[in-house]
Specification:
alpha/beta, six-stranded mixed sheet, two-stranded antiparallel sheet, 14 strands
């Protein structure tokens, strides 16, 4: 209120707001969210302006944001060069990785084309290359071989009475299984993205992902051995299939097909040498030399003119149809059999893609939307599945090439898709004589980066033993139990390590650093000083049902340790733990054997008596435990008068922890020790209120910081001294 006053000028009157008045005004302002009718809130949430509608549409279709601003002069040539380089990589990798998926090579080319176009419209990352990837190809291959093994497509040749595999029928059904699994995985990703579940990738820690990809590389190597050595091992599925396959391949080594081994050995040697030269001179080369494509072209030409398939019985790719396949509805009857595998594909593919996307976004200064990436990847898989593609994600090698060759936007992905399209339409039949051993060599050499991840063992041994354990458990479980069950087991184990670490946190007594407002652990910081008469206790983790009892035990131990170290009068009296019938109580000892005593009436305890547990039944034991408290265990002279609980690390609190805190207040109150809480976050205060914590405990025991609580106690002590004086 503004009022005039004598002598000119004005004076402003305003209401002085106390805490209760502020809370009342806050509740009035929040009426639209907390006290408004449901119909009003629903109407308000559905209200949409033109600007908000535009933001939502652009959020769902990021291409509408960046394409109108696209500059051909600035971005056109870099995207074209980058797209051609990545497209050249798509060709050999698409055909080679289709072998990992146990599919004909042409379907690897389809997988390199359709999903890249879909991601162009919905993706928010400018530098990742969507298409085939080693790990996902292996995971699809394990599903395909489980549901469509060779044993289901055997036929007896009437002319020579030999058993043969109906390859055409087998491959057709395998494509249907792979497409159905891909569509289901894509739908899972879209649903997770729409419900804002993009954070799911955070549950896959870096040690878990690297251990998982390293074990997937082991699966890939074993899967390619039959093409490298030219042998035909028995196909196994289920747990330990990798071990059985490896043993079978070793037993077939005496019958190795030498021409096939020669081709694979030469191809591997050439690829390794050429890639090393590429890495050494990468700064001098405008674009990387397409070594893989060169090896494939040369291998195809040699095979065609020397008739390797007819003269030396070397297995080749075979017929590659030209043109694109029409869309087909996936075989939904297999959904129930592949739902677990589809979920694993969805999570692993998203985790790999979002990690690469965020890495490039951080480097180039733009933002990647996690939920939109999940939707974009899901649509790429779902739409691609209708065109007989298998699961895709971002490829590390192709994404690095796209970024290092100057790619600026998603337009580079369109350019690479055009290269694949031209190959499928016109050049596909030219690769019919390509030896499969060459494709196996391409896969083998491209796994070099994953082989280097085994150095993580030494790094994690020096930095974090628990992360090392996660890495090893992930690797072993994935190798032994296959990719789907291994992923579930590794995630479960990783979550258990988190629970274990929160259940066993570090408990410490804090001291004051002179001249500051800092309170640090007295065991690790020698400069801090103990606050006279006050024990400051802190846990490094939040308090919840799994560690609430341990929190109480640690507090008592720390308090008693502090009390014994600071008071000579307690040398003859010891407060120790006594465990009986799996229940822990405090026992006040004065030199009498506790095994010969029983729990009697609390009022009958005299000086020199001992309180222990000797009840014969569990019910009596429970009642006696409820009667045992700090006050009933005896009185002594305390050097401390207050305990400050620093719970700043806690971000939530449950009912068990609330009950534990109430017990702490009551038990220490019986021996005239006041309890205060410091560093309590707002959500924790709200949970304390909802749990009825403040029904008999005043909010005046809460403080923002430890220093505030300590200053309050100091001022209270000065008031008492002034009163006595």
């Amino acid at each position: 209120m503004v009022r005039g006053r004598k002598g000119g000028g004005y004076r402003v009157e305003r209401e002085i707001l106390d805490e209760e008045r502020l809370e009342e005004l806050s509740q009035r302002l929040d009426i639209s969210q907390t006290r408004a009718p449901l119909a009003y809130r629903l109407k308000n949430s559905l209200r949409c302006s033109v600007s908000s509608l535009k933001r939502r549409v652009v959020g769902c279709l990021p291409v509408l944001y960046w394409l109108p601003r696209y500059s051909i002069w600035d971005y056109g040539m870099p995207d074209l060069v980058s797209g051609i380089s990545v497209g050249i990589m798509h060709l050999p990798q698409g055909m080679a990785y289709s072998l990992l998926a146990s599919l004909p090579p042409v379907f690897g080319l389809y997988t390199s084309f359709y999903p890249a176009l879909v991601y162009f419209f919905f993706g928010s990352s400018r530098h990742i290359s969507i298409g085939t990837f080693t790990v996902l190809s292996i995971m699809v291959g394990s599903v395909v071989e489980r549901l469509a093994p060779d044993a289901n497509f055997l036929i007896v040749n009437g002319t020579n009475a030999t058993v043969e595999v109906k390859v055409t029928e087998r491959d057709l059904y395998r494509v249907q299984v792979a497409a159905a699994t891909t569509v289901l995985a894509g739908l899972i990703q879209v649903i997770l993205g729409l419900v804002q579940f993009g954070f799911v990738g955070t549950y896959l820690s870096e040690p878990l992902v690297r251990g998982y990809t390293s074990s997937a590389a082991a699966h890939a190597v074993v899967a390619q051995l039959k093409y490298i050595f030219g042998v035909s091992p028995t196909r196994f599925s289920g747990p330990l299939s990798l071990v059985y396959t490896l043993v079978d391949v070793c037993m077939l080594l005496p019958s190795t097909h030498l021409p096939t081994l020669l081709i694979s050995s030469v191809s591997i040697t050439v690829l390794i040498v050429a890639k090393e030269l590429n890495n050494r001179f990468r700064k001098k080369l405008p674009v990387p030399i397409p070594v893989e494509l060169i090896v494939i072209v040369v291998g195809t030409l040699i095979s065609y003119y020397t008739h390797l398939n007819k003269n030396y019985e070397i297995s080749v790719v075979g017929e590659i149809p030209s043109g694109l396949q029409p869309p087909t509805v996936p075989q939904t009857s297999v959904f129930s059999e592949v739902v677990v595998d589809a979920f694993a594909l969805a999570i692993v593919g998203y985790a790999i893609s979002i990690s690469l996307g965020k890495t490039f976004a951080l480097k180039h200064g733009y933002k990647v939307d996690s939920n939109q990436e999940l939707v974009a990847l899901g649509l790429s898989n779902a739409v691609g599945g209708f065109f007989q593609c298998y699961s895709v994600c971002a490829s590390m090698s192709r994404s690095l090439v796209q970024e290092t060759t100057g790619g600026k936007t998603q337009m580079a992905g369109v350019a690479s898709a055009v290269i694949v399209l031209v190959t499928v339409l016109k050049l596909g039949p030219l690769f019919q004589d390509l030896p499969k051993a060459v494709l196996a060599a391409v896969v083998f050499v491209n796994l070099k980066g994953m082989f280097k991840q085994y150095s993580d063992i030494l790094t994690l041994w020096r930095t974090s033993k628990i992360d090392l354990l996660v890495w090893l458990v992930t690797w072993v479980s994935t190798v032994l139990f296959n990719l789907d069950m291994g992923l579930g087991a590794s995630i479960g184990f990783a979550l258990l390590t988190v629970i274990f670490r929160t259940q066993r946190p570090r408990y410490s007594v804090l001291g004051h650093l002179p001249g500051t407002e800092l309170y640090l652990d007295m065991e690790t910081h020698t400069q801090v000083r103990e606050v006279p008469g006050i024990t400051i206790f802190r846990s490094s983790a939040t308090i919840y049902f799994a560690n609430a009892e341990l929190y109480l035990e640690a507090l008592k131990q720390k308090v008693m340790a502090s009390q014994e170290s600071g008071a000579d009068s307690l040398h003859e009296e010891e407060l120790s733990w006594k465990e009986r019938e799996n229940s822990t109580v405090w026992v006040y000892l004065k030199g009498i054997d506790p095994e010969t005593s029983t729990l009697g009436s609390m009022s009958d305890l005299q000086d020199g008596d001992i309180t222990t547990l000797g009840s014969s039944s569990e019910d009596t034991l429970s009642r006696d435990l409820e009667r045992v408290s700090l006050g009933s265990l005896g009185k002594w002279t305390w050097d401390i008068h207050s305990i400050i609980l620093d719970i700043s690390p806690a971000n939530f609190i449950d009912t068990v922890a609330i009950k534990t805190l109430r017990n702490i207040f009551h038990d220490f109150g019986e021996i005239d020790v006041d309890i205060y809480i410091a560093g309590c976050q707002t959500p924790v205060v709200e949970q304390l209120e909802q749990g009825g914590f403040f029904t008999d405990i005043s909010k005046e025991r809460l403080f923002t910081t430890v220093h505030d609580a300590q200053f309050f106690l100091y001022s209270q002590k000065k008031k008492k001294l002034h009163y006595y004086i």
